[in-house]
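User: quick one, fold this
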Amino acid sequence: MRRTTKLGAALLSATAALTATVATASSADASPSPGTPVLHRGGHYPDLFKQAGYREPQIKARLDAAWQQLFHGTPGTDATRSDGQRIYYQLTPDMAYVEDIGNQDVRTEGMGYAMMMAVQLGHKREFDALWNFAKTKMQLQSGPTQYFFAWHTDTTGKIIDPGVAPDGDQWIAAALSFAAGRWGDQGGIYNYGKEARQILHAMWHESDHGGVNMFDAASYLPTFSPPGLVSFSDPSYALPAFYRIFAAVDPADKDLWNHAVTAGEKLLQNAYNPQTGLAPCYSTFGGKPQPAPWDPTNPDGYGQNFQEDAWRVVANANVDASWFGVQPWQTKYSNTLEDFFVGQGVTTYVSRYHLDGTPLAQGQNTYEPAHAQGLVAMNSSSAISATNPHRLEFVRDLWNTPVPSGQARYYDGMLYMLGMLYDSGSFRIWWPPHGQPQSH
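Assistant:
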């Protein structure tokens, strides 16, 4: 869901009236944990930074520094915290949230991202505090979207809009699944696997008791925003790598998740422009650009163009490639995208485009910084599957980009940290839980 404004909040409120082959390897994380990361059939997670010539101690230091700044840096001194570094704030001793600094609210996308970062890097205290906030303040306990999460609250946890943004819910469920794998299930709300399965089951079965499913029954794709805006999708919500994991976490719906893998891959292939590699923020279930219902005639509108949501599409394809092996369509997509951005200048391209590669009008292309750190991070992941001779230039561009700070540090910072995990080979599968047999 778009990060720069409270997009469609009023409209959303109104409309609301591994089954893949895997092998086990030892963890690269020295911290003790019962779980062991499960590697894809290729036997390793590609370390793009190492391929680009950086040494392991440098890479680890950069990861640690990015985590420290975004989660424990200076909080900011002005009323809006716009002069700070961190996005992680403690509400109570055992409850914390990630703040969208520009909008001064809490969004499920950020909570899901932050929980995933914490489990990937082994920070259980922060993970549990974030999950406590999401579970206690954001999860809906009744109504047509029971067990989904209100897409944003204020920083006290008061729900602003009960509409649902499926990207956040999917990331939260994946993070909980990996927490179960890494740390084991515990008591109460920290029975991570049970909590993940409850969310995953609801995604397909809210309609069983009169509610609204998160996934469209005909296309097997996530809808834009239950309970109201469910007739179209968002390509950046298609997460086939997660669906492969969910098929193992939620075996009762294994067949549905396997259908979602196929559908998600198909949407990622259909949504991008074949000349530029640029995908729209919103699309039909078939992948055609979908104007936002609240802005249907604006040619520079958010839905049908390459803007902040769409930045994430390339990473969705390449995480799947990293975890489960590169497929030809992923290489074709990444090469097409890289060819376009090489033509724009790898270190100078702007952040918002029409799908044909024309930059949005000047007044619609005022993202700061112009060469957005979040887009830099997402584009760098293309090197996982690309064969383009310029592929590592995108990795070096991320390496040379500072950790986001200031007013725009929320979305750019989240994508930056994810990009660092992707490119360092540190974004890993933590499933199944220790002691459980693996699928072969």
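User: anything notable?
Assistant: The chain has one domain: 23-423.
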